Amino acid sequence: MLGPVILAASRSDRMRRLISAAPVTKQVVDRFIPGEDVDDIVPVVRDLADNGLELTMDVVGEDITNPAQAAAARDAYLELVDRLKPLELGTRAEMSVKLSMFGQALEGGHELALSNVRPVVEAAAEIGTTVTLDAEDHTTLDSMFAIHEELRKDFPQTGCVIQAYLFRTEADARRLAESGSRVRLVKGAYKEPASVAYQDKHEIDRAYVRILRTLMEGTGYPMIGSHDPRLIAIGQELAHQAGRKLDEYEFQMLYGIRTDEHLRLAAEGHRMRVYTAYGTDWYGYFMRRLAEKPANLRFFARSMLTK
Ligand code: FDA
């Protein structure tokens, strides 16, 4: 029951101001977001890579209000690419982007987001890596998929995310699996109405398995974005049934969540990519992590009370 309340708070400016200003918030945030700027994050990248893990990097931010902020977001990613270059990690360190941060919701936002994301995809390709487009709320997805298709004409490795909780996703998965895309499948993290999304956890899990089967049987590159032990085991089994080798799919998890499992899968020879977010505009990202697990909220509330 708490999840939807926290997700509603994630869109409230008043809650944003309250929570962002609380002195203890930072300690809890650090568990999920290990840095505020690119200087903080380069050692984290090195450390994860040294442990046999791969990365997808997210400069946090969304719901911007003017084109200058969208250009600043683009520049933050370009700086990140610059800083990754000497590490020579290639596709072991890719980028994840939210198109809302690149201006998608502003007037003329589809073209604006495309014009801001393209230079990031080009810069990533120059250092031998790629970009994945995150999935945000359902109203943004037609534009996201159109931008994905457009980028893939020049950069076929550009990836995208699909969300198992949406009714539309089984059809999206069939289309993407046939076109040979890199696709990250997640359960879905936004507050969506019953008219477009499953609300029941078990129904979402069943949809996840159906969609993952489609991706595994297709010609693309499936990326299993989940911490759920059952889905991870099913993912391995579906990959095996589809005759995929270990380098023909991968697991992805969020920084700070089930870290032992990251290392276990990597040690077993799996490609294991850690979604690592950093930056100052962490509110929306942090609130979605609280919503996913009520115990996080209890920990957060306890640390507020004991200070
Ligand atoms: P589930 O929520 O059932 O969690 C399984 C277990 O994992 C829990 O029992 C708990 O042990 C642990 N766990 C999960 N979340 C936790 C948390 N926040 N704190 C502590 N423990 C936690 N969503 C989206 O809509 N668009 C996107 O682009 C992305 N991108 C993305 C990338 C990657 C790499 C991942 C892993 C996830 C996303 N998501 C996302 C988020 C996704 O939709 C979903 O909300 C979370 O992954 C939680 O769902 P699980 O599949 O982990 O299962």
Automatic annotation (TrEMBL):
Pathway this chain belongs to: Amino-acid degradation; L-proline degradation into L-glutamate; L-glutamate from L-proline: step 1/2
Q: What is this protein called?
A: proline dehydrogenase
**What are the EC numbers?**
1.5.5.2
Residues annotated as binding FAD: 163, 187-189, 201, 226-227
Q: How is the cofactor bound, as the UniProt entry phrases it?
A: Binds 1 FAD per subunit.
Write down the InterPro entries for this protein, in alphabetical order.
Answer: FAD-linked_oxidoreductase-like, PRODH_bac_arc, Proline_DH_dom, Proline_oxidase
One Gene Ontology term from the biological process aspect of the record: L-proline catabolic process to L-glutamate
State the UniProt keywords alphabetically. FAD, Flavoprotein, Nucleotide-binding, Oxidoreductase, Proline metabolism
Catalytic activity, reaction form: L-proline + a quinone = (S)-1-pyrroline-5-carboxylate + a quinol + H(+)
Q: Which domain of life is it from?
A: Bacteria
Cofactor requirements of the protein:
FAD
What is the protein's species of origin? Answer: Streptomyces collinus
List positions binding substrate.
98, 288-289
Show the GO MF annotations.
nucleotide binding; proline dehydrogenase activity
Taking every annotated instance into account, which residue ranges of this chain make up the domain Proline dehydrogenase? Answer: 45-301
